[in-house]
Amino acid sequence: MTEAQSPAADLASLELEAASAARAAAAYGSDALILCDRLVRVYAADGVEVQALQGLDLLIRPGELTAIVGASGSGKSTLLNILSGLDRPTAGRARVADHDLLTMKGRERLRYRRETVGFIWQQTGRNLLPYLDAQENIETPLQLAGVRRGERRRRAQELLELLGVAQCAGRRPEQLSGGEQQRVAIGVALANRPKVVLADEPTGELDTASADTVFQALRTVNQELGVAVLIVTHDEQVSGQVPRTVQIRGGRTSSEVLRTEFGERSTAQEYAVLDRGGRIQLPPEYVAALNLRDRVRLGLEPEQITVRADEQEPRI
Ligand SMILES: Nc1ncnc2c1ncn2[C@@H]1O[C@H](COP(=O)(O)OP(=O)(O)OP(=O)(O)O)[C@@H](O)[C@H]1O
User: Fold this and answer.
1) pLDDT tens digits, 242-290
2) Where do the ABC transporter domain residues begin and end (predicted)?
3) Which of 17, 128, 133, 139 is the most exposed place for a label (fewest CB within 10 A)?
4) What spacing in Å lies between the alpha carbon of 77 and ligand 1's midpoint?
5) Separation of 129 CA from ligand 1 center, angstroms?
6) 174: which DSSP letter?
7) pLDDT in tens, 77-94
8) pTM surpassing 0.80?
9) 190 in Cβ contact with 227 (< 8 Å)
């Protein structure tokens, strides 16, 4: 028989637990550049609710190059729109470089979008102003940030050079190929030295060769400028060449692939993501292979946890 604790002792132990939970929450991702903690985004359209993000956890360190993959409708663009400051989460925590994306308002949001993040859309026509040439397009965000003319010019030329499109400086978007437009768009995104560049299917409208030059440009930017790059992509050529690929399923991060080397000596290891509530998502093919449903039996063994079908459950 256990001895009943006094109410005061109960309260003290509850307070200790609460304090330790608060410390753990504060410590989670404290060294990350991007933190998403149980992020939720619910859209309400015509009285119907769509839960686009359902408690998504994600940490990105400064200078990481990461691909985000997932089926259509899994929540990738929703996540990127939130991280870019265009959209607001419904609940949870989202922080990028000390900016709280839930509470951030007016001026801070504008400064955040101008200086902390750079964004590249899939549609080449959406990234550049059609009546300005490549150089002027890159100078525009610098001008908005109040940078002087000489410095604007120097910065734009330096970026055009780095991205391999110096010869395009005086051409307007319609005089550039799709791949060149996207590389100039990377220049626009980088103009104000952001900490992170977000790219939503940046190679989606391009042929394989142009897609490769755009991806290589993003890689150069990541390596030479140390800026974190997050690319949403369906392109396996891209996701197969980054150190980290995060898979989103049903509005949550479900698995990750980490690669240590590239090319012929490439090694890749796939991991399931264990969220902060101890949940993992089983891959649908595993669930189908064992015909798992409703309830499963878990077993703890010295070095592994097993998941078995519930044999007592009558199957129809
Ligand atoms: N503005 C909106 N209003 C209502 N529902 C929306 C809105 N935007 C997205 N959704 C819904 O939210 C879910 C996630 O959409 P999201 O665009 O983030 O997916 P995705 O993974 O980027 O898909 P895709 O690969 O097709 O671009 C989908 O069910 C989508 O229909």
Assistant:
1) 999 999 999 999 899 998 876 667 788 888 888 877 888 888 888 999 8
2) 37-275
3) 17
4) 7
5) 26
6) G
7) 999 999 999 999 999 999
8) yes
9) yes
Strand-strand pairing, 267-272 and 252-261: antiparallel
Decide if pLDDT at 28 tops 60: yes
DSSP 277-308: TS--PPPHHHHHHTT-BSBEEEEEETTEEEEE
For residue 76, the CA-to-ligand 1 centroid distance in Å is 8
Banded model confidence at residue 1, pLDDT cuts 50, 70, 90: very low
Cα–ligand 1 centroid distance for 245 (angstroms): 20
Pocket test for ligand 1, best of 40, 74, 82, 122 (most atoms within 8 A of CB): 74
- For 305, half-sphere exposure in the C-beta direction (CA atoms, 13 angstrom radius) is 8
**191 has pLDDT over 50:** yes
Q: Supply the DSSP symbol for 40.
A: E
- What residue ranges define each of the domains in the chain, with the CATH number in brackets? 62-88+104-281 (3.40.50.300), 282-316 (no CATH)
Task: Compare 36 and 23 and report the one with higher pLDDT.
Answer: 36
pLDDT tens digits for range 124-141: 888 999 999 999 999 999
| 80 CA → ligand 1 middle, Å | 11
Ligand 1 atom nearest the C-alpha of 45 is 4
